[in-house]
User: What shape does this take?
Amino acid sequence: MHSADRRQSADEQSRKKGGARGPSAGSAYPAPVERLIVELGRLPGIGRRSAERLAFHLLKASTDEAMALSGAIADLKRSVRHCSVCFNLTDTDPCAICGDTRRDRSKMLVVEQPKDLIAIEQTGMYRGLYHVLMGRLSPLDGVEPEDLTISALLSRVDDALKNAGGEPIGEVILGLNPTLEGDGTAMYLHDELAGRGVAVTRLARGLPTGGALEYANKAVLADAIEGRQSMQ
Ligand SMILES: [Zn+2]
Assistant: This one.
């Protein structure tokens, strides 16, 4: 099953559950307030009590303020998509990085998530392109190669026309998180890339094991890019 489908069915399940203890199940709130509390409560790190607090904040806020929030959410879902080349989040296609002719388009740095890309961009140390996998391999959780953007990655390596600017890739830099699953994904990609005529390197091991790229400090990340090592 595709991961998006799994998410969809998980959403449906939680919606059903939410519905069961919705207004009809004895909520003291008017239905629109209860609905907002339920929706806010789906956000990561927001429990029922926080959701109530946010809902009451929005009730007290001016109409303009509340509509600015709902407008920002609507705009986000309308205009932000994944770059068709590298899968970075973007409101243009290709994204600003793939479209930048001053960047070195022969280099591709592979990361798990868009937020890893942002962490690396903030170091200012890397001027090549990226490829966002949209996750990492995790056989135990049922995340298989076809659930990630690996086939698009290999297409970019095999066919220069699939890469930004039609330029051939010369080096693939694996920038996965230093976790068991990140390492497993790096090994899988290394094996897939063997014999395709590209150099495969990985970020230097300055990153703490088990840590996450997005939380590494700039200097450590910059060293990891500078000191990247060839994978044998
Ligand atoms: Zn892109």
Observations:
- Residues 83, 85-86, 88, 94-95, 97-98 surround zinc ion (CB under 6 Å).
